[in-house]
Protein 1
Amino acid sequence: MASGLAYDRLCKSKMNISVLGSTGSIGTQTLEVVSAHPKKLKVLGLAAGSNTSLLKTQIKKFRPKAISVKKEEDKRAFKNIKNVQVRFGDKGNIEVATLKGVERVVIATPGLAGIAPTLAAIAAKKTICLATKEVLVAAGELVTSEAKKHKVSLIPIDSEHSAIFQALSGRSEKEVKRIILTASGGPFRGKTVKDLKKITPAQALAHPTWSMGKKITIDSATLMNKGFEVIEAMWLFGVPLSKIQVVVHPQSIIHSAVEFVDGSIIAQMGASDMRLPIQYALFYPGERLPNNFRRFSFFDKRDLTFDEPDLKTFKCLDLAFKAISKGKSAPAVLTAANDVAVEAFLAGKLPFLGIGQVLEATLSAHKVQKFRNLDELLAIDEWARENAAQNVLKFSK
Ligand SMILES: NC(=O)c1ccc[n+]([C@@H]2O[C@H](COP(=O)([O-])OP(=O)(O)OC[C@H]3O[C@@H](n4cnc5c(N)ncnc54)[C@H](OP(=O)(O)O)[C@@H]3O)[C@@H](O)[C@H]2O)c1
């Protein structure tokens, strides 16, 4: 929860934010939310990878104080732009995340690149609006304990976690019977292992209900994304796996729900539009503000359906459950191996079903261990990537 002082500030003046991953799917939608509320939000920092032309357009529109790009040579693209500090690399991400005057930082940088700026922003007492699920999947214990230590809020942006966050609305842990995490089921819901043998990247990238970045779209098709979300929910809401149920809900209207001990289920519903959870995270615990984002009408979709996930066909979700029960470094190994496998699949070097095979082989070769800091985590990540790369060769076509 924001302190009383922070909440007062939220109500009275513009809130200053930094957006990491500003040229991506979440980043651009965050900037659309800023454009929808120009009197309430001000962008002070932007960080991106290598899409310098879009970043230039964003600088012109939002006039940040500082920006960061992935590589030093990409700084050249900004040499004629005045009044903006240009940084690069991991250090640049950290500088943008900890800029003086910034109150909230949106973390939407994929993978482990999001962890260091998140930890730095927490230490600088910035409220975190978290989209990057790898931050909690790989480093959940590290990040949540730092957030606790510095009394910093982690506000979820992922639509499912935002839904749970909204449904919980200040209720205590002991009132929660279970968390119901909904999954669209991805483009291959109902398919068999045989059907999935010849899936191409283009087919896997055609998500039925959400428009997202490539990596997360493939993770949705394999159901790995849902596995990551289970782990993310465990850290965000402090619940054990036994209290989380995954329910396939293809229409993606109920974004998730909480069942309380009295039998009441509170679900959050809405159109499949990420700007809604982004806006909620940026203004929480302030009032809900009107916008012109997509709306859901009960008469648009009369059938809302629910199913159990098929863990046999979609083994990545089952592997996430296995990684949770192994604990410690196992979820970090799963994310690293998944990065490698998804990249190989998108490059045409690994069949769709090979993704699960690579993850299974890498996870079973890993000796689970504890890590105390980011450096130790990065060493585990490096091992997992090397092992997964060898497994890609083993399971390639
Ligand atoms: N998209 C969604 O609807 C959604 C929903 C829930 C959660 N998430 C999570 O949010 C995160 C971002 O997803 P996305 O779909 O927005 O991804 P995306 O479209 O691929 O965008 C990634 C962004 O990160 C930037 N980037 C890449 N490497 C970077 C680095 N080293 N330093 C700084 N910026 C870097 C990219 O820059 P360039 O493009 O300039 O290279 C881009 O701006 C993921 O972890 C995903 O799981 C996404």
Protein 2
Amino acid sequence: MKVGIPRALLYYKYEKLWTTFFDECGIEYIISPETNKAIINDAANLAIDETCLPTKILLGHINWLKNQCDYIFIPRVEFVYRAQMCTKFMAQIDLVMNTFRGEHLKFLFYNLYKKGPKAEYKAFKKMGKYLGLKKSVYKYAYYTAKQAQVYYEMFRAQNQLQLLQQPTPQNKVLVVAHAYNIGDKFVGEPILRTLKNLGCRPIIAEYFDARECIQASKQLSRTLPWAYNQHLLGAIALYHEQVDGIVILTTFPCGPDSMVNEMIVRKIKDKPILTLTMDTQDGSAGLETRLESFVDILNFQKERPHA
Ligand code: SF4
């Protein structure tokens, strides 16, 4: 049996958890390639216009995988860190099944629909049983995978803190974007590359410790419902004073981001903020020009801090 993992959405959050789990269970898997032009074209053709770009990209990756594996892996996640997910994550498996109806694809998923410390294990347990695995196998695989994921996140968070705290003549720019946007070659990479080419040091908000950030997000909003937006908002609350500017990268048309980004711009008054919105259109010329102007502002502020 071979499982196909789309390199999209939750993959960028749980890569270590998933791949370690399948490795420990002895299940073969294939991961779709980095997002490329062909995948983007498929994504645009398969999705309706109202779908957000990361969900469109997911469809493009599934299209790439569909003839290469026995099962396509699409977990359904409703809660993380006791907070709610954007509704797109809850509907993902239904959306995918409907889009590919008539193609006789088989799907594998775990359904995380409860809060609580054991909820994720119970979801994996059900999937393990569905796969016909012994309890000793899926239980060991899950806890090993969970540990791998936790270490990976800790390492990444420490790395970002070092980048933030090390003195540098470069402009430090806090890049605020969901994991599946900043990690995607088509969406996030051009922004990071351009910032580096312009002599900046990008600091990735998403890579800071999620629990600390979610706690800190209460300083800016006590009512924000979405877990991943809480994570990003908390990173801004904790670290905006230590950077020279903030770049908010969002994708069209994202409901949660459209509200949260507006709130960030209203509440954070002491740093220059640039908001960039990506869609399936190609071409980075406009993007580079906007980032160049933004970096000019950062340089100007450094040279004349009281201007
Ligand atoms: S948060 Fe926005 S980009 Fe992410 S899945 Fe929901 S609508 Fe799409």
